[in-house]
Design a protein that fits this description.
Layout: H1 2-17, E1 39-44, E2 47-52, H2 79-86, H3 88-97, E3 110-115, H4 117-126, H5 131-136, H6 138-146, E4 149-150, H7 156-161, E5 164-167, E6 174-177, E7 182-184, E8 189-198, E9 202-207, H8 214-221
Parallel strand pairs: 3-9
Antiparallel strand pairs: 1-2, 3-4, 5-6, 6-7, 7-8, 8-9
Bound molecules: 2-acetamido-2-deoxy-beta-D-glucopyranose (NAG) (5 copies).
One 2-acetamido-2-deoxy-beta-D-glucopyranose binds next to loops.
């Protein structure tokens, strides 16, 4: 109940944070027509995960890293569009982080772990914070957000093939990915609920918990920086 009203407040706040041009305010809905044709559904624990059969890069270089081509030809939606539409609280956080240009850099290909709105509600509740308090803490939001991004394209199959440590955009911080879809962070763990949500320049894996670097926990427990 509290969480729901928090999300509503957050949505309103996010609206006020949008640039005056407002071209982000009304992203086109993701169309299933733009998703890869060959999607198979696999089970990860209890969750349904869509995995394209052949996620083949268009041009040379692993998933077109560093070039201005989509990593997956059939997914022209930008990560901005996918996040704004499917992950409103994450999008509000991206707006609040000051990383407003980052989603536009098409040549930076990413793997993004995207917490759901429910995951954010849980985070707010567990820390006794309102969404407004969190969004107002720009350094904290930036740390937590960059901790969810890996500067390489890791599709779900490659994550499930072997346990691995991935460096994140938060310098010096890693995420450990288990072959069972577990994402072990420095101070919280998540599970991939939905894998391989392709956008032009990122593969997004939906997760059920906000990943916290230790520094964020220190900031939260030691008073706001
Ligand atoms: C897109 O998804 C909707 C709802 O699942 C479905 O009704 C529609 O037929 C789909 N369109 C295409 C082109 O697959
Ligand atoms: C799936 O979820 C149910 C209820 O949440 C649980 O009882 C069951 O053990 C889970 N199964 C697996 C394979 O994790
Ligand atoms: C965009 O991303 C590429 C690839 O990671 C990077 O080399 C470049 O510096 C970035 N450009 C800007 C303007 O951030
Ligand atoms: C998933 O894998 C991680 C890392 O290997 C492990 O710590 C965890 O216990 C596993 N979880 C389940 C439900 O098997
Ligand atoms: C996350 O998972 C790891 C490995 O299973 C475990 O050692 C750690 O205690 C977990 N952390 C939290 C915050 O649950």
């Amino acid at each position: 109940m509290a969480a729901t009203s928090s999300i509503l407040i957050l949505a309103i706040l996010a609206g006020s944070l949008l640039p005056s041009g407002a071209q982000f305010a009304d992203p086109p809905p993701p169309s299933n027509e733009t998703m890869p044709d060959s999607i198979t559904v696999v089970d990860v624990g209890n969750d349904t995960t869509a995995v394209p059969e052949e996620p083949v890069a268009e041009t040379e270089g692993e998933y077109n890293q560093g070039v201005e081509d989509c990593i997956y030809a059939d997914s022209p939606l930008s990560r901005r569009q996918v996040i704004a539409d499917g992950y409103p609280t994450l999008w509000a956080a991206a707006q609040a982080s000051g990383l407003t240009d980052a989603p536009e850099n098409i040549s930076q290909k990413l793997t993004l772990f995207a917490p759901t709105d429910e995951a954010f509600s849980k985070f707010f509740e567990e820390n006794g914070l309102s969404p407004e308090e969190v969004l107002a803490n720009q350094p904290l939001v930036l740390e937590v957000l960059t901790y969810h991004a890996v500067p390489a394209v890791k599709d779900f199959e490659s994550l499930a093939s072997e346990p691995q440590d991935l460096p994140t955009l938060k310098e010096g911080s890693m995420l450990t990915i288990g072959t069972n879809g577990t994402v072990v962070g420095e101070a919280s763990n998540a599970t991939i609920a939905k894998g391989n949500i392709w956008s032009c320049n990122a593969v997004i894996h939906e997760i059920d918990t906000v990943l916290l670097p230790q520094s964020a926990v220190d900031a939260l427990t030691g008073g706001a920086p």
